[in-house]
Amino acid sequence: MSAAVGSTAGQGAFAVGGVALRGVVSAVPGQPIDNARFVERFGEQAVNDVVKMIGVEARHWARPDQTTADLCLNAARVLLERLDWTADSVDALVFVSQTPDHRLPATACILHGRLGLAPGCQAFDVSLGCSGYTYGLWLAAAMINAGCRRVLLLAGETSSRLVDPSDRGTAILFGDAGTASGLEAAPGAPPIHFRLGTDGSGAGALIVPEGGFRTPVSDPDRAEGLDPTRLHMDGGEVFTFTLRAVPKLIKDTLADAGVEGDSVDAYLLHQANRFMLRHIAKKIGASEAQTPINIDRYGNTSSATLPLLLTTDLARRVTSAPSRMMLVGFGVGLSWGSALMELEPLVCAETIIA
After folding, report:
1. What angle do CA 335, 129, 305 make, to 5 degrees?
2. Whole-angstrom distance, CA of residue 112 vs CA of residue 140
3. What are phi and psi of 177, to 5 degrees?
4. For the segment 99-136, what is each residue's pLDDT rounded down to a tens digit?
5. In the annotation, is 35 catalytic?
6. Under a CB-based contact definition with an 8 Å cutoff, are residues 151 and 144 in contact?
7. Does 130 qualify as catalytic in the annotation?
8. Catalytic residue, candidates 72, 130, 148, 348
9. Measuring CA to CA, how many Å separate 148 from each of 17, 92, 143, 156, 352?
10. Which residue is catalytic, options 232, 270, 273, 348?
11. pLDDT in tens, 318-336
């Protein structure tokens, strides 16, 4: 059963045993878009200045008629085939995204129908971004401990729909992707060590100010500056939060598990920006080989960054031999989450073009 780690109630540390990650498939849309796209709008020097910091050379953007759900659906169909899971063997579907198809119903319900899952299968959405995959893993593991046998975790984002094209800090940074992960009950599997937390006082650092029920959409013709219906990011605040929270999160997770940092095969860090990632790696004493980076090719894909690392830079490693991986998500909320996992070779870790 799921159990809190440590003696302090509410500290956000959990160890969940008896759960195995079996496979992951990521779907990215179309052909990559390189930085030449932005030169006409921002100028070559401005683009180069941003890219030097964030490290994004290319990203994939969804077509106008393509949503996060479409990308996750394509990934899920391939995953179910690779795992040889029948639709009626899935007990729960969790969709993690901040770009759903509709305000209601839950996109998970729509995906449930499109995948032909059984009526007894739970399906619900989780509105979370950068830390969303680690939260989703924790939810899936807890649900399996509560009696589910198989859980389909779908996580992704089409952030290209949220960014303001006139904001070079976000327009160049974000990419789109959808992912599917299969978890199932595995009696005797070693515990996954989770740490989860939130600092809601910083929620305004990453926000779409208008378009919800608190603040409906204003007249865009009267708006000054950036579009209030698009993503606003306080990069300095996010950077400060990350350096304050993430190295400690990693250190505490290692302590929970009683392992040393050099025993971790790879630290999968949310692909926020390259400079930040290198700084975190230095602070935790991890090598470049232990901290893979694919933001140069895919941009920041929000909740999809961690599974996308598994299916790109780490695909061969996680499908060929047992491994110890720490997945670390952090950002919008402000929120953070880690998952230290002992993985048996995955059946699949694959990236497809959708």
Report:
1. 110
2. 16
3. -170, 155
4. 999 999 999 999 999 999 999 999 999 999 999 999 99
5. no
6. yes
7. yes
8. 130
9. 14, 7, 6, 23, 28
10. 270
11. 999 999 999 999 999 999 9
